[in-house]
Design a protein that fits this description.
The complex is a heterotrimer of chains A (259), B (383) and C (378).
Chain A lengths: L5 H17 L4 H17 L6 H23 L9 E5 L2 E5 L1 H27 L2 H10 L4 H30 L6 H32 L17 H21 L5 H9 L2
Antiparallel strand pairs in A: 1-2
Helix pairs in contact in A: 1-2, 1-4, 1-8, 2-4, 3-4, 5-6, 6-7
Chain B lengths: L3 E10 L9 E9 L4 E4 L6 H8 L7 E6 L2 E2 L4 H10 E4 L12 H11 L4 H14 L15 H13 L5 E5 L7 H16 L3 E6 L2 H7 L2 E6 L2 E6 L1 H5 L2 H6 L6 H11 L12 H9 L8 E6 L6 H7 L6 E5 L1 H10 L9 H10 L4 E5 L4 H4 L1 H9 L5 E5 L2
Parallel strand pairs in B: 3-8, 3-9, 6-7, 7-8, 11-13, 11-14, 12-13
Antiparallel strand pairs in B: 1-2, 1-4, 4-5, 9-10
Helix pairs in contact in B: 3-4, 3-5, 4-5, 11-16
Chain C lengths: L2 E11 L6 E11 L3 E5 L6 H8 L7 E6 L2 E2 L4 H8 L2 E4 L12 H11 L4 H14 L15 H13 L5 E5 L7 H16 L3 E6 L2 H7 L2 E6 L2 E6 L1 H5 L2 H6 L6 H13 L10 H8 L7 E7 L7 H9 L4 E5 L1 H6 L11 H10 L4 E6 L3 H13 L5 E4 L2
Parallel strand pairs in C: 3-8, 3-9, 6-7, 7-8, 11-13, 11-14, 12-13
Antiparallel strand pairs in C: 1-2, 1-4, 4-5, 9-10
Helix pairs in contact in C: 3-4, 3-5, 4-5, 11-14, 14-15
The chains are: A mainly alpha (259), B alpha/beta (383), C alpha/beta (378).
């Protein structure tokens, strides 16, 4: 997936996102979610890194909260599934609001997985290259590449400084600890300035001509991507029409909650 | 048998599970006040082992014993241990936390919550020991790499550690500065600090260390005297190292019976003495002149009637006294070795020496006398 | 020989400030030479390299490349830099891409080399530094030593006429350092001018034809190593110490009452001077083209005898001989000739490019009175 065209991937992901938003059937967001999940598993070689898993978990928590809010703020003129008061919030959950919350939940989570599948399969330099090909200003592209490279160096430096501070008892007491973090951050900052100063000279040594060349250019955007994107779009829209009202979340949950 | 100070027992450690073990069942003992070198190629796990010995990382399996007791990893115990075991990192930029030299050196002692006067005294002493007294008020940013290295060394010295772990202490330093660092290490050894250093410079560690531990792919492959290890060429190759040139020369010459194999020479001087084998019977006297930091060297030399001889200098007190009265010195670096060599060539020499370093200053001359390569009279002048 | 680089009375200060980093500085570098630049930390070695390649423009004086002053225009600088590659001390400062192969390709792509050619160069350069397995890895996953090798590969891929290496062995373990020296010798034998700045006086002593010593932004010496180290006062002022081999030769010669000259620069010539006297042994030479040894290992052992020590010089050969009995994996030339000096036969396997080094070493040893015979195994 690393070698797929970045622009193609971007187009494909955006198309899926948009169609997911346009459709009201809950089946469509479910399908896009499945596609996103599959792509992400493929791009990370079926091993989702811990940090990514945490990010996804956090996103899901936020979305659950959001969807929860939507589900309990139904139209007050319609009979409620569940009613009550919690603190100052009036809870009024209806059939429609419950169903809507689920659709939105799946749409959001499908969006997240799709975007992540794009992010984990596209190295920043490829992204920069893609941006350059859609006429994004050169300065911004170069900056993205350099920041990406240097962020690793700075992080490395910061972590070592934290260790070094421990060896000199830098965390003996809260005030000390705060001062130490400050010192380490200042050190990293100074390092970044030194790095920036030197990078100009070392870029010149390596014959930098004003742009970052890419050795293995990712495949360009082709009509296949366009066809695949639009094709999938049409299929999903048809599915949307055909499956409208297929899955009613209320009836799914009714036996569980005694509605 | 020396007392074991730090001990690693079957340590296994990995940063991330899927990457496999960085340290794989490492066991080693570091004796109290034994000059210890940790050798190994890039990526053999030396720095990681150090981070475990100092409780920066907690091993997945196995345990670390300090003074015979397992490290408890409770915050209080770790703090106490770290106040006794210090690490000097390889890159000085990683260790500078304060904008100016004085404050940075004071960083450790301040964290120890020492009284102000004590901190001030320690900072001054530590800065002197590394020859940076005049930079006390300078901003750390303006210093060169070598100067920064000295400042970080001072910062560690100011904590008065019992154990000093130095990660590649001479990397990136020019030869004189590297020598100074080694002299400071020797000085610390003489004052009772256990010094452990990692290095790939086998020539340098061969002349200094009594015991070596060789790391290879996260395992400790050898612990013991250096000669036994270097004699096994295949093991040296596998460990990514090269044998010290002094060792190779000795092996070459002893294989054709030109010299005897043992005693093994550890320094250039000892090797030269072995090869030269001066049988003329004319040897000089090595005058070891013990001085304190406020001795006037020039007048003391005059008083003892030692003018006109080649002079060398060795140890912190001697350097401080030299700084004060500025006498002419022939050998600012490698004093003991150079002075001994003068005696080998039949001339007398004077070594201005810190009293606690006297024993280590006589080593090369004693090696020569005991091996029968010469007969240098060692004359220690105490005050 | 012509001068590839020359600096005449150059004065340089950063941003035209008051501190002169280079002060009335002159240097001449012969084409195809092995030149070492020595000096303490902060003596101005790195600044000198930047000035040579036109990154810094001196306020006074001129910098000549192939006899012509450098033009500080984009075309002029590209002309110089396309022939000059620089490896900096800290590899992190000169790496800008995220993958190993991308970074190695960075230099040649900037010069507009076409892609198929770049592909070949990248593979070759990574093989030369033994990093082929890491081709697709992100840089942040590499250790310091590995990054250094990638930086060197990046310089090799430019196919320079001049290779400048700033402290190439700092932070590398001894075997990796030996490989860098082997590489430097190879470049030299291919006619490339090699400049190395270093603190490692032992290393520079064994390698360099000419040394240039810097002190506080001034050139204080250029000439042969022995001439420089004989002036103890100057060595001391420059923050250096003299190399071990040089010291030992001087000391032993002094005690034995013989002339310090000729000066031995490596173990074999030192042994020839002080351990010699016996009839020299033979070195059985096996030249390996791109690691092709065939059955010559067995043949050599048959001819030289089971006891003969076996040495290697060159990366390709070292790989081809993995798993075989070898005594000297590194620095095989010096070790095998040492064996010969001590009167024993030995076998030397080497990459064929290093042929001239063997002749050079044999000639040197003749000067020390040891006539080492060379037997070629076809």
């Amino acid at each position: 997936m690393l070698n797929w065209s970045p622009l193609g991937k971007l187009f494909f992901v955006l198309v899926l996102l948009i169609i997911g938003l346009l459709c009201d059937s809950i089946v469509v967001p479910l399908i896009t979610f499945t596609i996103g999940l599959a792509l992400m598993a493929y791009s990370t070689n079926f091993r989702v890194p811990l940090i990514l898993a945490l990010a996804i978990a956090e996103a899901i928590v936020i979305m659950v909260l959001g969807s929860g809010m939507i589900s309990i703020m139904g139209d007050p003129n319609v009979p409620a599934l569940f009613e009550g008061k919690f603190l100052w919030i009036t809870i009024h959950m209806t059939d429609a609001s419950f169903q809507k919350a689920w659709v939105i939940f799946f749409r959001a989570i499908a969006g997240v997985t799709l975007m992540l599948s794009f992010a984990t399969s596209t190295p920043i330099p490829h992204l920069a290259h893609a941006l350059r090909s859609i006429k994004c200003p050169v300065e911004i592209c170069e900056l993205i590449v350099l920041i990406y490279r240097y962020s690793f160096l700075l992080l490395e430096r910061f972590l070592v400084m934290i260790d070094a501070a421990q060896c000199r008892l830098g965390y003996n007491g809260t005030v000390n600890a705060i001062r130490t973090y400050g010192g380490a951050m200042a050190g990293t900052f100074i390092f970044s300035m030194e790095l920036a100063e030197k990078s100009e000279a070392s870029l010149a040594c390596r014959n930098y001509q004003g742009y970052f060349p890419i050795f293995h250019t990712p495949s360009p955007f082709s009509w296949k991507w366009l066809a695949a994107g639009l094709g999938l779009c049409i299929v999903l829209y048809l599915i949307n029409i055909y499956t409208m009202g297929w899955i009613d979340m209320v009836s799914v949950f009714a036996p569980l909650l005694g509605w | 048998m020396t007392q074991t100070l730090l001990e690693a027992e079957n340590i296994c450690f990995s940063y991330e599970k899927k990457d496999g073990n960085v340290l794989d069942n490492v066991s080693l003992r570091i004796g109290k006040n034994v000059k210890t070198a940790l050798l190994g190629a890039n990526g053999a796990g030396k720095s990681t082992l150090f981070s475990i010995l100092n409780a920066l990382n907690r091993p997945g399996e196995g345990r670390v014993l300090y003074n015979g007791e397992p490290i408890s990893y409770r915050k209080k115990d770790i703090l106490r241990m770290r106040s006794e075991v210090s690490i000097l990192f390889q890159n000085p930029n990683d260790m500078l936390f304060r904008p100016n030299v004085e404050q940075d050196v004071a960083f450790g002692p301040t964290n120890l919550k020492l009284p102000r006067d004590e901190i001030e005294k320690r900072v001054d002493d530590a800065l002197f020991a590394v020859g940076m007294s005049e930079y006390k008020k300078s901003p750390t940013m303006k210093l060169s790499y070598g100067q920064r290295k000295r400042i970080t060394l001072a910062g560690v010295l100011a904590m008065h550690p019992q154990v000093l772990i130095m990660d590649e202490p001479t990397a990136g330093l020019d030869p004189q500065m590297a020598y100074e660092v080694m002299e400071i290490a020797e000085q610390l050894h003489c004052t009772g600090v256990t010094v452990i250093m990692s290095s790939h410079d086998t020539d340098l560690t061969y002349s200094w260390a009594d015991e070596i531990h060789v790391m290879q792919h996260g395992r400790c492959q050898y612990s013991g005297a250096p000669e036994e290890f270097y004699a096994d060429k295949a093991a040296v190759y596998r460990a990514g190292l090269l044998s010290p040139s002094v060792f190779l020369m000795n092996e070459g010459l002893s294989s054709i019976g030109k010299v005897e194999r043992e005693p093994f020479p550890r320094t250039q001087t000892q090797m030269s003495a072995k090869i030269a084998n001066n049988r003329s019977g004319k040897f000089g006297t090595l005058h070891i002149l013990e001085v304190s930091q406020d001795t006037d060297i020039t007048s003391l030399i005059g008083e003892k009637g030692l003018e006109g001889l080649s002079t060398g200098i060795y140890g912190m007190a001697a350097r401080r006294a030299h700084d004060f009265s500025k006498p002419a010195i022939d050998f600012m670096y490698n004093g003991p070795e150079n002075c001994t060599m003068k005696c080998m060539a039949g001339k007398d020499s004077v070594l201005v020496c810190d009293p606690i370093m006297t024993d280590s200053a006589r080593k090369s001359a004693e090696f020569i006398n005991e091996g029968g390569y010469g007969d240098i009279r060692i004359d220690v002048i105490r005050q | 020989m012509s001068r590839i680089f020359e600096m005449r009375d150059v004065t340089f200060a950063h941003h035209g400030g008051p501190v002169k980093v280079m002060d009335n500085f002159s240097i001449a570098v012969e084409e195809g030479s092995r030149t070492a630049i020595l000096g303490a930390n902060g003596a101005g070695k790195t600044t000198m390299f930047y000035t040579l390649t036109g990154v810094y423009r001196p306020q006074e004086g001129e910098v000549l490349f192939r006899g012509e002053p450098i033009e500080y225009t984009k075309e002029g600088l590209t002309k110089v830099r396309s022939e000059v590659a620089v490896v900096l001390q800290n590899p992190d400062e000169q790496m800008f891409c995220s993958l190993v192969e991308e970074d190695v390709a960075f230099g040649p792509l900037n010069l507009g080399v076409d892609r198929d050619e770049v592909e070949q160069r990248v593979d070759k350069a990574l093989r030369d530094v033994r990093m082929s397995d890491f081709k697709k890895r992100p840089l942040q996953q590499l250790s310091g030593g590995q990054r250094k090798r990638v930086a060197i590969a990046g310089a090799l891929a430019v196919h320079p006429e001049v290779m400048i290496m700033d402290e190439p062995t700092a932070g590398l373990d001894p075997q990796a350092s030996m490989e860098v020296i082997e590489l430097a010798e190879k470049l030299h034998l291919q006619g490339i001018t090699v400049l190395i700045s270093t603190h490692d006086v032992d290393l520079a002593y064994g390698w360099a034809d000419a040394v240039n010593v810097l002190r506080k932004g001034k050139m204080v010496f250029s000439g042969t190593s022995e001439e420089f180290y004989s002036d103890a006062e100057n060595v001391h002022l420059c923050g250096l110490l003299s190399p071990a081999t040089f010291n030992m030769n001087r000391e032993v010669s002094d005690i034995n009452g013989i002339s310090p000259s000729p000066y031995p620069r490596n173990v074999s010539s030192f042994l020839a001077k002080f351990g010699g006297g016996q009839k020299a042994g033979r070195v059985f030479c096996v030249s390996c083209n791109e690691g092709d040894i065939g059955d010559r290992y067995e043949q050599a052992v048959r001819e030289a005898g089971e006891d003969a020590k076996i040495g290697i010089y060159g990366t390709d050969t070292r790989y081809a001989l993995t798993g075989k009995r070898v005594d000297y994996y590194f620095d095989g030339i010096d070790s095998c000739f040492s064996e010969a000096v001590l009167g024993r036969d030995s076998i030397l396997f080497y990459d064929s490019v290093y042929e001239p080094l063997l002749k050079e070493q044999a000639d040197t040893l003749k000067g020390f009175g040891s006539d080492v015979g060379r037997e070629v195994i076809q």
